[in-house]
Amino acid sequence: MLRIAVLVSGGGTNLQAIIDSIKQGKITNAEIGVVISNKKQAYALERAKQYGIKTAVVSPKDYQSREEFDMALCKTLDSYQVDLIVLAGYLVILPKILIERYPGKIINIHPSLIPAFCGPGFYGLRVHEAVLERGNKITGATVHFVDEGTDTGPIILQKAVPVYEQDTPETLQKRVMEEAEWTILPEAIDLIANNRLRIDKNKVYAGE
Ligand code: GRF
Question: Most buried in the list 63, 149, 157, 168, measured by CB within 10 Å?
Fold first, then answer.
């Protein structure tokens, strides 16, 4: 059984998609061991509690330095003995020590088709604003492994969605979440939980 830590900062709709997929049997061989937020007020924490999932808050505000926060986050994760860390709308840059400690065991959902509209500064609504400014006709979401760069790790799954002329950043964000993120994040977790991924030279292959 794969034990997952889900790291969140906000509403937690991706967390909800993971919870629902486990309940519905779309994700097998996996359980959520803990949900960790950098924000005490994150609604994602309430979602976790409703299902009896353990939660923890590790906020940079509670530590004097970034190093102390990094250590606290590592300690918290280690204490739950997780096999996979899922970044589901987690808006903190991950500590290098954490990435080194969990090689190939951290995944992220990004709301664009990487390598478009990704990297430093591309998060939340800004991604969708940039897509609309550029006049793209399609966008989408990407699940990828996390390495030391920003949105540079091996790509696991991607799904495209259309961009419409009347879209606002908000309507586009909603479509990307509903039609792409909530589908491919659970799918990627299921693939990992069932040992169906192989990585070769920065490329990910999914198979039986
Ligand atoms: C999603 O758009 C995700 O791609 C981005 O942050 C948002 C998180 O939403 N990184 P939620 O907290 O899962 O509702």
Answer: 157
